[in-house]
Specification:
single chain; 140 residues; mainly alpha; elongated
Length: 140
């Protein structure tokens, strides 16, 4: 992975991880007007479904921020942390998209951010996987 690609990926981490933290703060503090909430927001099952993403999203942010920190400190652990964060981010987006698709709810205000979560990691994972494979091969 080139230095340029690594830096681009870390910008995406910063944006995504901050957005997750802001989303959950806004959610828990109930700062959004009702018209901006997803369909059936007050249905207890949908509320539980949404809240079930909290641990995953926060873990994504923790691994993303840790990767940023390790990168800035020149520690090689940033790459495995980045891989973990990217895979989990894509999984988070996939789970949400699958849910909305099965529900046949095509509100783009929810689809676009979740498609972002699903797709953006796919641009960085191949290069990062090649980098980690090289390191493993060199070390063995």
């Amino acid at each position: 992975m080139s230095e340029k690609n690594a830096r681009a990926m870390l910008v995406f981490f910063w944006i995504t991880d901050v957005a997750f933290v802001v989303y959950w703060l806004v959610t828990f503090l109930e700062l959004l007007p009702v018209e901006y909430l997803y369909q059936d927001y007050y249905n207890p099952n949908l509320l539980a479904w949404n809240l079930s993403f909290f641990p995953l999203d926060i873990f994504i942010s923790i691994t993303g921020f840790a990767s940023l920190y390790a990168y800035r400190r020149g520690r090689h652990i940033w790459k495995p942390l980045a891989m973990l964060s990217l895979v989990l981010t894509s999984c988070s987006g996939l789970q949400a998209i699958a849910f909305w698709a099965f529900k046949a709810d095509y509100d783009w205000s929810w689809w676009i951010p979740n498609l972002y979560l699903l797709i953006y990691p796919l641009f960085f994972l191949p290069g990062l996987m090649r980098e980690l494979a090289k390191v493993k091969e060199r070390d063995s």
